[in-house]
């Protein structure tokens, strides 16, 4: 006999258990039916192109850290704490319910003595946290709604159902305490405080009747909520966790390659089931929090892109397919053919304007709490556009130039070394041994503004005694822009193969890059095709040479400099300190940090092929330049040729050529020596 615990199913007729378990059986069938339909929908996606089950230990750690530990969710303080209250309460109260079921169903006396007291304390505390979380979420949703948070009635309904479960749970306990006055009632501190307020002076028979009514209401609401999970946003509790577990093992800056591209019939996405099963599952795991949209520079510039909407449109199309599979009468039928009307996914559900607006800056992926791979989804749709020859004229022109001339400027190969006139620069073809191959890149070779940076880098390498060479007229585009614009064939079969041959011919082992895009491509993507070299960005090498005393900045520079983190050096490759440390060695210079810096840096707008395209809306580089000017600086520093071009454009747009400069790290260090 129990000394402290309570009778389970107290004040309920025997038939209540029969009805409850009958409803539970129905609930399990509904949940299984919904889960099966979703799994079948995912299976219609293409086969994954990478192993999603390697490094099981690391994947499980990510689940505990990101899914259970809510690490990224907590990056937003108020919203994160609200979600943590609801999430943690659900876990604890689920365990509480399981313990009650074990004792009732198997006759194992668990809930007694001191354990029962602790059990009640936990149940009461986390029940209160659940109510607090729901209240906070309602306040946030109605009074302080972040722009990216969706406004769908379904989301509000789910929140109200959770709140109703918590309220009825407390009222059940409150009525039980009012009726029985247990000795340990103070442990249930919320319910005990409410008992005299809600049931004080009420006849016992009415309290007992209220208790039974509340119990049934609680049961029906809870079962209704659980049964809705496979058909509502709440599916993210399972699919979001699965998305974290199945996260990519690729380096952050690497796109997923297409193996055997010459044999691939569908290299890209034109229909929703052209996405991989993992991409469909991840889209279904979207929490609709809108953090990706809040961080997106294209969205901030009022371009047609919202990464949140790309995912949610995919999720909605997938959901429509599921609904029509479960309930065929829900489909819209073409009367002339008798077939279901299916919209053109890549042009009507998603739009070319939003897909081409992406700069692949990775801000969306950095913010996503369930590790959705937005960039791969968008680039896969671009691959579909390229394969079907449905691309904007600006994209077509850039790709044609890269294919015809080996550079996106479309300039002759002989002009690639025009910058070297009068400069002491060795070429690999001269036969002299070298330690580093200096990869100038297309911007450093052809763009007049960046040719100055190229010369500054060469002067620093010569001064520091670095044994290096360039490919000169043999160099060509590494293919980064082509790949991100969706032309995987040109990238793999053209540029990678030619560079691979050159590197093998000259026995290249170490590469210095001027451009973060080239750096990322050689470091993270060429290894996918058997090209493995040690890659160092020029800002890192300059920092190291300064630290070794081989470069000694002496001349003071009194610039107030706002430093801009290039997306492909920073977010994609986690290089934040090296350029700052190189600049910090210059006497007199003042480094000012913009509000959006380092991991949360704001894109210049040139990535993802944006350098070669025009999109409607504001110019992203103008927004970033405004952010730099708000620091009170008279110069903007970067370590990327694309960023430098974009800031030069913004300076000219604002007619500030006489008062504001855009400078590369290499130029500033060279000027100080």
Protein architecture, described:
The structure is a single chain. By secondary structure, this protein is mainly alpha-helical. Among the domains are: 14-236, Fumarate Reductase Cytochrome B subunit (Up-down Bundle), CATH 1.20.950; 245-393, Fumarate Reductase Iron-sulfur Protein, Chain B, domain 2 (Orthogonal Bundle). It contains 27 helices and 8 strands. It has helices at residues 14-43, 56-68, 77-106, 113-142, 153-180, 189-199, 204-228, 236-245, 277-284, 291-295, 297-300, 307-326, 345-349, 352-356, 363-367, 374-387, 393-405, 441-446, 448-464, 480-484, 488-505, 516-525, 538-547, 577-584, 620-629, 641-653, 665-672, and strands at residues 436-439, 468-469, 510-513, 534-537, 560-563, 590-593, 635-638, 661-664. The strands form 2 sheets. It has a 4-stranded parallel sheet with strand order 2-1-3-4. A 4-stranded parallel sheet has the order 6-5-7-8, with helices on both faces. Strand 5 (560-563), helix 24 (577-584) and strand 6 (590-593) form a beta-alpha-beta unit. Helix 1 (14-43) crosses helix 12 (307-326) and helix 2 runs antiparallel to helix 8 (236-245). The chain is elongated, with a radius of gyration of 31 Å. The protein starts with 13 loop residues before the first helix and ends with a helix.
Question: What is the secondary structure topology, with strand pairs?
Answer:
Elements (H helix, E strand, L loop, with lengths): L13 H30 L12 H13 L8 H30 L6 H30 L10 H28 L8 H11 L4 H25 L7 H10 L31 H8 L6 H5 L1 H4 L6 H20 L18 H5 L2 H5 L6 H5 L6 H14 L5 H13 L30 E4 L1 H6 L1 H17 L3 E2 L10 H5 L3 H18 L4 E4 L2 H10 L8 E4 H10 L12 E4 L13 H8 L5 E4 L26 H10 L5 E4 L2 H13 L7 E4 H8 L1
Parallel strand pairs: 1-2, 1-3, 3-4, 5-6, 5-7, 7-8
Helix pairs in contact: 1-7, 1-9, 1-12, 2-8, 3-4, 4-5, 5-6, 5-7, 8-9, 19-27, 23-24, 25-26
């Amino acid at each position: 006999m129990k000394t402290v615990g309570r009778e389970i199913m107290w004040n309920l007729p025997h038939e209540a258990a029969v009805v409850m378990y009958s409803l539970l059986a129905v609930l399990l069938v509904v949940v299984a039916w919904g889960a099966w339909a979703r799994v079948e929908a995912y299976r219609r996606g293409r086969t994954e192109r990478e192993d999603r089950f390697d490094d099981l230990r690391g994947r499980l750690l990510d689940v505990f850290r990101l899914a259970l530990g809510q690490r990224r969710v907590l990056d937003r303080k108020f919203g994160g704490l609200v979600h943590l209250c609801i999430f943690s309460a659900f876990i604890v109260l689920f365990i509480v319910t399981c313990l009650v079921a074990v004792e009732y169903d198997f006759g194992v006396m668990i809930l007694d003595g001191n354990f029962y007291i602790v059990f009640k304390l936990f149940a009461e505390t986390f029940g209160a946290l659940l109510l607090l979380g729901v209240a906070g979420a309602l306040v946030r949703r109605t009074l302080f709604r972040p722009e990216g948070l969706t406004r769908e009635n379904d989301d509000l309904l789910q929140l109200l159902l959770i709140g109703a479960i918590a309220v009825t749970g407390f009222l059940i306990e409150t009525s039980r305490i009012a009726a029985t006055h247990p000795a340990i009632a103070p442990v249930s501190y919320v319910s005990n405080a409410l008992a005299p307020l809600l049931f004080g002076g009420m006849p016992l028979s009415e309290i007992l009747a209220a208790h039974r009514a509340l119990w049934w209401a609680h049961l029906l609401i809870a079962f209704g909520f659980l049964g809705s999970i496979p058909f509502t946003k709440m599916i993210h509790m399972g699919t979001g966790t699965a998305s974290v577990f199945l996260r990519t093992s690729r380096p952050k800056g690497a796109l997923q390659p297409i193996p055997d591209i010459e044999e691939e019939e569908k290299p890209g996405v034109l229909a929703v089931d052209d996405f991989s099963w993992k991409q469909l599952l991840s889209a279904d795991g979207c929490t609709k929090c809108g953090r990706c949209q809040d961080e997106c520079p294209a969205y901030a510039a009022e371009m047609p892109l919202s990464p949140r909407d790309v995912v949610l449109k995919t999720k909605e199309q997938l959901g429509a397919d599921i609904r029509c599979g479960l309930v065929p009468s829900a489909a819209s039928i073409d009367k002339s053919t008798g077939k279901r009307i299916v919209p053109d996914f890549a042009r009507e559900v998603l739009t070319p304007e939003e897909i081409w607006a992406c700069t692949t800056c990775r801000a969306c992926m950095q913010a996503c709490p369930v590790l959705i791979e937005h960039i791969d989804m968008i680039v896969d749709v671009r691959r579909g556009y390229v394969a079907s020859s449905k691309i904007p004229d600006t994209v077509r022109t850039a790709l044609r130039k890269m294919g015809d001339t080996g550079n996106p400027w479309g300039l002759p190969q002989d002009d690639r070394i025009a910058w070297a006139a009068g400069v002491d620069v060795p070429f690999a073809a001269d036969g002299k041994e070298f330690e580093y191959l200096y990869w100038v890149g297309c911007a450093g070779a052809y763009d007049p503004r960046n040719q100055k940076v190229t010369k500054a880098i060469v002067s620093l390498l010569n001064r520091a005694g670095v044994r290096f060479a360039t490919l000169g007229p043999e160099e060509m585009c590494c293919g980064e822009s082509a790949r991100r614009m969706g032309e995987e064939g040109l990238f793999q079969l053209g540029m990678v193969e030619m560079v691979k041959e050159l590197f093998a011919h000259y026995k290249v082992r170490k590469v210095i890059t001027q451009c973060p895009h080239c750096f990322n491509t050689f470091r993270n993507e060429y290894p996918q095709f058997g090209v493995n070299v040690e890659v160092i960005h020029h800002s890192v090498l300059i920092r190291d040479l300064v630290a070794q005393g081989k470069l000694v900045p002496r001349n003071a520079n009194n610039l107030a400099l706002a430093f801009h983190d290039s997306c492909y050096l920073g977010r994609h490759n986690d290089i934040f300190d090296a350029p700052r440390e190189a600049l910090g060695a210059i006497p007199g210079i003042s480094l000012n940090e913009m509000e959006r810096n380092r991991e949360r840096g704001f894109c210049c707008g040139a990535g993802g092929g944006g350098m070669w395209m025009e999109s409607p809306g504001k110019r992203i580089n103008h927004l970033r330049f405004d952010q730099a000017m708000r620091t009170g600086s008279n110069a903007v520093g970067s370590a990327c040729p694309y960023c430098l071009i974009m800031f030069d454009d913004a300076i000219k747009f604002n007619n500030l050529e006489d008062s504001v400069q855009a400078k590369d790290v290499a130029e500033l260090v060279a000027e100080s020596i």
